[in-house]
Q: What sequence folds into this?
């Protein structure tokens, strides 16, 4: 299967008063078309930097980022992004918040087609009937659902999720995990998820990439076998327990708490 995203030998450092702060060091990641990769690692290891590089919002100091066979040199309209903070505009209705990217990114959709698509996405994530509400009238989980719709409105090839469920309570978070599988089935995309939640990574992703401590390298890659969309019960199987133990150990290695099993 062709890789839609390729991170090739990426190194990057930030300028600080104390000198360069290396955050990525020879990073290698490949995501096949239609795949869903979760990226985990210690805090501050460069996970969010990786999302900005994929989206073309930053350029690496060394190495290359490729999307669909083209080197990324700037922002890409084929990339959608959702963050931990939904950042919805209070003076706009939920429907108009979802439609906002189409006011920025050129679209072939007519005004009616765009509105129909927004309503379809809102219904898909369980927000039918809330189109005319303001963000303050919705719960945190509902605002995050609207943010997901906004990220998908322009039918991106790549969807980047930067800890989108991190601020939600456990029940809402698990509900949204199930919604994500439903959305991906109806709205195919190639996904990159940044998360600190190991359960979330194995529930949503086909593959989990563990980054080392800063400056980050690709330390370990865990494939998650999938025959069908999982249910929450699948998180309590012996297979899931083994996957979580592997990932917990790799995080300990990345944090420098143990050296055994490092790639």
A:
């Amino acid at each position: 299967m062709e890789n839609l995203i390729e991170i090739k030998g990426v190194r990057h450092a930030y300028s600080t008063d104390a000198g360069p702060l290396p955050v990525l060091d020879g990073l290698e990641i490949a995501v096949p078309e239609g795949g869903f990769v979760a990226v985990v690692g210690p805090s501050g290891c460069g996970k969010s930097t990786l999302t900005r590089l994929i989206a073309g919002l930053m350029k690496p100091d060394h190495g290359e980022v490729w999307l669909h066979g083209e080197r990324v040199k700037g922002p890409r309209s084929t990339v959608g992004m959702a963050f931990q903070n939904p950042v919805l505009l209070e003076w706009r209705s939920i429907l108009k918040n979802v439609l906002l990217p189409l006011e920025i990114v050129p679209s072939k959709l007519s005004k009616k087609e765009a509105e129909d698509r927004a309503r379809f996405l809102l219904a898909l994530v369980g927000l039918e009937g809330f189109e005319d509400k303001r963000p303050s009238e919705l719960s945190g989980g509902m605002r995050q659902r609207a943010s997901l719709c906004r990220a998908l409105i322009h039918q991106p090839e790549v969807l980047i999720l930067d800890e989108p469920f991190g601020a939600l309570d456990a029940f809402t978070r698990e509900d949204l995990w199930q919604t994500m599988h439903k959305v991906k089935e109806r709205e195919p995309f190639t996904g990159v998820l940044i998360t600190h939640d190991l359960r979330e990574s194995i529930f949503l992703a086909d593959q989990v990439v563990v980054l080392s401590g800063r400056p980050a390298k690709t330390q370990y890659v865990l494939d998650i076998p999938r025959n069908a969309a999982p249910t929450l019960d699948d998180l309590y199987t012996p297979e899931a327990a083994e996957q979580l133990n592997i990932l917990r150990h790799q995080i300990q290695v990345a944090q420098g708490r143990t050296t055994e099993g490092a790639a």
Q: What stands out?
A: Strands lie at 3-16, 19-32, 36-40, 62-67, 70-71, 79-83, 158-162, 190-194, 207-211, 218-223.
